[in-house]
């Protein structure tokens, strides 16, 4: 497709508060995943493990405050996100049957029909659900394991430790997939990392239902909010 | 293409108020579940210690000898071997020692 055939009119996809939340999440989760793996395998010396543990705690507090602040300040965004990632339809089954057409595109170089998606595709929704549930598990269990590991009931501490491990490994396993697909979908990458907007043609191609059902010209919102 | 120049955005409230309330309260309810679970765990955390001490008190109340210094075996130990309570030999034999095995300082 030639460039000037693309509709470049910007659609706001990620508002500023979401982007700030995502940046703090990114800057705290990357060290958390790295130090979490180090704490699990314990390859370093006593002082090295001590430093790893301290970094894990500081980054964990930053992530927890980020999540708490975003939930309080932008509760509407949290509810919208939950409504999106926990919605399930026949289209999601069909999407997973072709895995969004990505393996066919990467491995065979051919394009297969993909069911129309809303703001997030089915894979992103699965990831989002894992982040909401796993992130909550990680934050709550991490607080207990950090602050009251000896005062809390020991069977509860053991259970929370296992939950922390499983959720941490799950989200860490998602991380390389998320990074790769984020950079692959470069218009969306720029939207989350820089200005929040995706060009109309990109949104219409990857998220047609979102454009069709939820996107309005900004003047319509301004009129409604008056 | 920067933030204040976008021409389209999400409809400011595309889900109904009823659905928003339902999802929001479901979210808060789910968040309350782990708190409730942990609170009940904390409330019952000493149950096995309490039943253990209740059993010890019960054993004591039906025991013939109810104080350790009246135990003939202990009396015999001090008379024939250990000297006196808190003495040098008893200290060596009966007191335990601890080794600090702490791995993490914080």
TrEMBL record, chain B:
Residues 43-102 form the Iron hydrogenase small subunit domain. The lineage of its organism: Bacteria, Pseudomonadati, Pseudomonadota, Gammaproteobacteria, Alteromonadales. One of its GO terms (cellular component) is periplasmic space. Gene3D superfamilies: Iron hydrogenase, small subunit. The keyword Protein biosynthesis does not apply. InterPro entries: Fe_hydrogenase_HydB, Fe_hydrogenase_ssu, Fe_hydrogenase_ssu_sf. The chain crosses the membrane at residues 20-40. Keywords: Membrane, Transmembrane, Transmembrane helix. It comes from Shewanella fidelis. SUPFAM superfamilies: Fe-only hydrogenase smaller subunit. The keyword Transmembrane applies. One of its GO terms (molecular function) is iron ion binding. This is Iron hydrogenase small subunit HydB.
